[in-house]
């Protein structure tokens, strides 16, 4: 794993030219979540009295430096937060301090606070969302993804837990710890994306690009309707098998040539539409999801093409008007 020296990291971290905030500037409330690198707290600023989420990561201070993944997350969030896209979680400040007798560096990322993540929201509501609300959430998700892809960023870990939503149903994409800038010749690790939302080409350890995000979007839109994960396998060995059982085994010409597993290793299941396994979908949304879940990544819709889909047309003008009020 690549790392950066501590002094180099700190030189890159400040989001603002003025004096960075300190922990004593915040009143702490409950813990909002916990991840691989640290915890997220609900805080209120004693200076501007606004509420935020504070992500705290403790990293061993020493010659090994700071993991590249941490630097990458901060760098990407800094670059996109300047644009202030309404469907991307905004980074407000980054600051650090030494803790535990200088044995650790605590990196603090101050971000917008949202009311729920999509996973919790879908499981807290008493019944399935009506179609217009599913469309509203899906359109915002795709606007956020289109923005990322237009800036050559692949998220690589899209899942309901990393999509935040407010009481007014504004959607914001969060958690850029696995995100990467990319070009047409980029090569990436396949140890990305939460299992249930991982595209077949990633599971087959073959070449992938931004279309892997679109596969995850198709899974998420289906879940918005049904409140159930589309491909909830227990392990990597079963994930491809479950996908093939549910929507069919890819045809030979759609099997990646650089896949580490041969197509003949799997039972041949007939291809079928998502409508056959998710009865909650409306007809137009079925077509959109089917086109996001194409096995051939080159045949998947781009985020921009998905936003032009007929199912999203009634929503497009409304969301576009909201986007025009934000300069990004």
UniProtKB/TrEMBL annotation:
Limits of the Protein kinase domain: 26-312
GO molecular function ontology, one term from the record: ATP binding
Protein's UniProt keywords contain Kinase: yes
Protein name: Protein kinase domain-containing protein
Coiled-coil regions listed: none
Keyword line: ATP-binding, Kinase, Nucleotide-binding, Serine/threonine-protein kinase, Transferase
Biological process per Gene Ontology, one example term: regulation of gene expression
Membership in a protein family: Belongs to the protein kinase superfamily. CMGC Ser/Thr protein kinase family. CDC2/CDKX subfamily.
GO cellular component: cyclin-dependent protein kinase holoenzyme complex; cytoplasm; nucleus
Species whose genome carries this gene: Caenorhabditis angaria
InterPro entries documented for this protein: CDK, Kinase-like_dom_sf, Prot_kinase_dom, Protein_kinase_ATP_BS, Ser/Thr_kinase_AS
Binding site for ATP: 55
